[in-house]
Amino acid sequence: MKEEFRGSTFSAQEEVKLFKKEKNVAWHFKCNRVQWDFNEDIADSIQQIDWSIEHGKPDYCRELVADA
To answer: Domain total for the chain?
Structure first.
């Protein structure tokens, strides 16, 4: 299911996010990078949950919520 989600919802906004993650950004404090990564993971989980609701996949949604 996760592969199906990733393969079907790749938008320009997602490409920008991937670019920002891959780009070697100079963080002033290491904790800022840790917070950024955490926020990105949460945002990704929420997008996957939203996708699963829109596509009528309640079991997958429950799995994502449990993981989050």
So the answer is: 1
Residues 6 or more apart in contact with residue 9 via CB below 8 angstroms = 47, 51
Determine, yes or no, domain membership for 47.
yes
Using only C-alpha atoms, what is the Rg of the chain?
Answer: 14
Q: What is the pTM of this model?
A: 0.60
- Say if CB 49 and CB 61 are below 8 A apart: yes
pLDDT tens by residue, 33-47: 999 999 999 999 999
